[in-house]
Amino acid sequence: MSSTQTSPVAIGQAETMILNMGPQHPSTHGVLRLILELDGERIVGVRPDIGYLHSGIEKTGENRTYRQVLPYTDRMDYASANTNNLGYVLAVEKLLGIEVPLRAQYIRVIMAELSRVASHLLAIGTAVMDLSGLIGVVLMYCFWEREKVLNLFEGVAGSRMTPSYFRIGGLVADLPEGWVEEARAFVQQFPRQLDDIEAIVTRNPIFLERTVGICRLSAEDAIAYGITGPTLRASGVRYDVRKAMPYSGYDRFDFEVPVGQNGDVYDRYVVRMAELRQSTRIIEQALNDLPDGPINAEERKIVLPPKDELDTSMEALIHHFKLVTEGFHPPVGQVFMSVESSKGELGYYLVSDGGPRPYRFRVRTPSFAAVQVLPLIIKGSMLADVVAAIGSLDLVMGEVDR
Amino acid sequence: MGLESKLPEGILTTTLEKLINWSRSNSLYPVTFGLACCAIELMATGGSRFDIARFGSEAFRASPRQADLMIVSGRISNKMAPVVRRVYEQMAEPKWVIAMGDCASSGGMFNNYAIVQGADRIVPVDVYIPGCPPRPEAFLYGLMQLQKKIRQEKLRDRR
Amino acid sequence: MSQSHVAEIIREAFPDAILQEESFRDETTLLLRREDLVAVGRLLRDDPRLAFSMLKDCCGADYLTLGRRPRFAIVYQLYSLSHNRSLRLMVGVDEGETAPSVTGVWPNANWYEREVYDMFGIPFADHPDLRRILMPDDFAGHPLRKDFPLGNEPVDHGLPPRS
Ligand code: SF4
Question: In angstroms, rounded to a whole number, what is the distance separating the alpha carbons of residues A220 and B7?
Answer without folding.
Answer: 70
